[in-house]
């Protein structure tokens, strides 16, 4: 069994750590606060990912170094470049495979399904930041200085999804509780959503398969569905009332952005929700040997997680 270092313990990093620990690997989770899953096989370390010397020491002897960080949405320009450079330097110094959790921002608006061979042509600030990170890592790989791979998913859903997930707690609560759920765009536009456990599985598989290195891959993801379709299916599976969805007017979103920097940053990626946003993962499924979790299976697990979370909140002492 090998040593795996994971930077970030959020909705993806924590699940990667647990998956690796279940398989018997030595796992080190790095966050600023030293937080993360507390279970046998996982060591928690407090460190700054942008500190290259620290990261070289922590990654010493590691087979893989996973970048699962999630800087604050409105601070990507400031926070991503030094952290990405530090982790790449650590991978170069230690020989660990650098496995980066990416996204689809770098492509920018496209017509038709997104595949891994599309150019990184985004004109948006966040898209350019992510594209630059990958180009720097890929250059190091092509020059023989490091071994790198990037795994890109669409918007996440599933157990332990964050409040920022469009199908996360703010959506699940109203839908499963029989109340009106607010959505940010037309509820009948097809959109690809990626299941969180599939993200973790793809990162681990990409780290282990030499034939995957030096490329970016999409997380195995189910065919696109609409928000209305997923809400209706959640209600059926949970035995909840038929869902009620209400669209938030664009002007209300932009007004909220005056005081909320996260909402303000969403203007750049608004195109993802105003037109079909389709991820094609057929190439990665063949190389990684993985398939997306069937939608009903994923939704049932999401419902079970949500109900367990609600029970924990309700039973906490006041």
TrEMBL record:
TM helices/strands, residue ranges: none
UniProt signal peptide: none
Domain of life: Bacteria
InterPro entries reported in the protein's UniProt record: Epimerase_deHydtase, Lipid_A_modif_metabolic_enz, NAD(P)-bd_dom_sf
Residue ranges of domain NAD-dependent epimerase/dehydratase in the record: 6-211
Protein name: NAD-dependent epimerase
Protein species of origin: Planotetraspora thailandica
């Amino acid at each position: 069994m090998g040593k795996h270092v994971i930077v970030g313990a959020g909705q993806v990093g924590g699940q990667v750590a647990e998956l690796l620990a279940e398989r018997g690997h030595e796992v080190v989770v790095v966050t600023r606060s030293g937080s993360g899953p507390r279970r046998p096989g996982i060591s928690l370390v407090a460190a700054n990912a942008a500190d290259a010397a620290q990261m070289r020491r922590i990654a010493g002897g590691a087979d893989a170094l996973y970048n699962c960080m999630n800087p604050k949405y409105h601070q990507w320009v400031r926070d991503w470049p030094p952290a990405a450079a530090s982790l790449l330097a650590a991978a170069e110094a230690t020989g660990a495979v650098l496995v980066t959790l990416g996204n689809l921002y770098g492509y920018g608006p496209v017509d038709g399904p997104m595949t891994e061979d599309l150019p990184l042509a985004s004109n948006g600030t966040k898209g350019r930041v992510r594209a630059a990170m990958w180009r720097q890592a890929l250059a190091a790989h092509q020059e023989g200085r490091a071994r790198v791979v990037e795994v890109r998913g669409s918007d996440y859903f599933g157990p332990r999804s964050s409040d920022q997930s469009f199908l996360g707690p703010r959506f699940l609560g109203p839908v499963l509780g029989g109340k009106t759920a607010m959505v940010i765009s037309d509820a009948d536009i097809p959109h690809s959503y990626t299941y969180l456990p599939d993200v973790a599985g793809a990162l681990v598989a990409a780290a282990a398969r030499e034939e995957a290195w030096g490329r970016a891959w999409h997380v195995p993801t189910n065919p696109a569905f609409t928000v209305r379709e997923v809400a209706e299916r959640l209600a059926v599976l949970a035995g909840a009332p038929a869902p009620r969805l209400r669209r938030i007017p664009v002007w209300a979103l932009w007004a909220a952005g005056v005081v909320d920097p996260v909402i303000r940053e969403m203007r750049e990626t608004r195109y993802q929700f105003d037109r079909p946003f389709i991820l094609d993962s057929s190439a990665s499924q063949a190389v990684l040997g993985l398939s997306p979790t069937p939608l009903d299976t994923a939704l049932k697990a999401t419902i079970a997680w949500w109900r367990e979370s609600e029970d924990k909140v309700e039973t906490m002492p006041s």
